[in-house]
Here is the input.
Amino acid sequence: GFWPQLREIQEKLPQKKQQLLFSATFPDKVAHIADNFLLFPTRIEVTPQATPATTVAQSIYDVPNFTSKLNLLVHLLTRDDAMNRVMVFVKTKEQATSIAKYLERLEIGEVRMLHSNKGQNARINAIHDFKGGDVRVLVSTDVSSRGIDVIEVSHVVNFNIPTHYEDYVHRIGRTGRAFKTGVAI
Here is the structure.
């Protein structure tokens, strides 16, 4: 999705430069970008492609519908004090909005939402407040599943399971960073 921006940046850089590309996953699209931008690249893989971090404990709950999922989320947030900086990933911006508003009414801590309809300033402020520890729960679409570095995320909750395995790896990779442990549900 960032192809035009990458090309624009590339055109403004000097011809002689060293470029490095890091990616948690390396699908064919990323390989194609690398081929277009890098000259004689050397590829180094630390682990097989799309491998979840070993610092993330993963668990699953078999929940049949939206209401049950919401009730489980509330139960987890009210019963587990260790859930102090939580990212909840949802499929749509409408779900992000409705879940965030519902959680706000319960007064279980500060809640923010992130999705594509939020302005850039609102997104920046939400991430800043979340990083700073002022926000307990960040409800988001996949707009924040990549490229966001918040070291102290305690839990990632996949309210909806993503369609692609790589997206799941990116989502749960928001926790268990910088030699810390985390939990993915």
